[in-house]
Amino acid sequence: MFDLGAVQAAVRDAGLDGWLLYDFRGTNVLAQRVADLAGKNLSRRWFYYVPASGEPKKLVHAIEPAALDHLPGTAKTVYRRWQDLETGVGELVIGAKRVAMEYSPRNANPYISRVDAGTVELVKGYHVEVVPSGDLIQRFEATWDDDQEKSHFAAAAVCRAAYDVAFGYIADEIRANGSVTEAAVQARIMKHFADHGMTTYSPPIVGVGPHSGDPHYETTPASNAAITPGSLVLVDLWAKLDQPRAVYADYTRVAYVGAEVPGQYAKVFAVAAAARDAGIAKVKAAFAAGEPLTGAEVDHATRAVIEQAGYGDQFTHRTGHNIGQEVHGNGAHMDGLETREDRRVIRRTCFSIEPGIYLPDFGVRTEVNVYIDGAGTVHVTGGDPQTEIHTITV
Question: Are β-strands 349-353 and 322-323 bridged in parallel, bridged antiparallel, or unpaired?
Fold first, then answer.
C-alpha cells in the first residue's frame, strides 16, 4: 500500500524537492513496486511525481488513463503524442531543483539504475538535477515488515537443518555405496525444502573439489562429480517459505569427507572465517554507536582480512548482497568491489556476508545473513557461524 505521508517524509529527509517514478513496460521494477503496479503489465510510459509536500501529479497515456488512479493525487495529465509527453514531464517537475529517480551516475550501481539515459536527459532538460533514489528505494522496497521478519527466521531454521540433512545423506551414501554425486545431494536438499513448505528459484550449489573453487558453479549432467572419502564439498543453499511476500534465507557451508581436515583447507577456511567475522563486527559496531554505515564499508572491512593474508586476488566477488523476496534483493549490497555501493545499511533490511577464497584445486566460502531489526539490533541468522570445516565421518 502506497503511504504518501511516509514517502514525502523520506523525500524531505533526503533534502530533495521530489521523487519522480517512471516505468515503461516493466523496465523499472523498483518504481512498479513502490507505485503498487507490480504485475500490472502496462504498455505505455507513465510518470508519477511525488513532491516533498503537496499533491502528487500523474502523467499517463490515453490508452491507459486509469493506470495511476489507485495512487494519491487528483492532478492527472493524459497524453497521446510524444510532444505532449515531453511537455507533461516538464509540468510535473516545474519549480523543482533536485529530484530523485532510479538512476546512478556512470551506472556505478546497476541495481538502482533502471531509468534509461534518454529519459534522464529529458528531465534534466527542464533544469532539474536528477539524483539517485537508492536510499529512498531501500525504505520502500527493501525493508521488511513483521511478517517478513518472521518468515526469514523460519526459513533460516529450515535452511540450517538442510546442512545436517545433506551432510548426513553424504555420509550414509558413501558408507553404503562408496560415493554420492553432487546432483543427488542437490535433490536431497530440494526434498527437504519441499517437505518443509519451502520454495526456491533454483537448486543449491553443491561443488566438490575444483568445483568448490567456482563461485557460481552449476552441476550439469556433464559435470556431475562424485563425492568420495577425501573430498572437500561446498554447499550454498537458499530458500523461503512458500507463501506470499516471504523473504529468503541464504547460507554457505563447507565440509570435508574424513576425520581430519587437511592443513591447507583448514588454513584457507580460517582466513575466510576471520574476514566474515570482521564484516559482522563492522556492522555491530556501527549500529551500537549509532553511526552511518555503507555497504562499501562492510565490504572493505571484510576484504581487508583476505588481502592481508595474501589471497586478495582469489576473493573475486563482492562481500554480500541484499536479501528480500528475491534472494538478491534491491537494498544496499555489501560491495565496494564490483559497484560503488554508497547506500546506507538501514534498519529492517537483511544482507549476506559471504567471503570466499577460490583456488585452482578447491575453494571455500562462509556465508551468513545479517538482519538489522527495527530497534537497530544486529542479528546473525542461520545458526552459529561456521568456525571450522565440518567433518563428515564415514
Answer: antiparallel
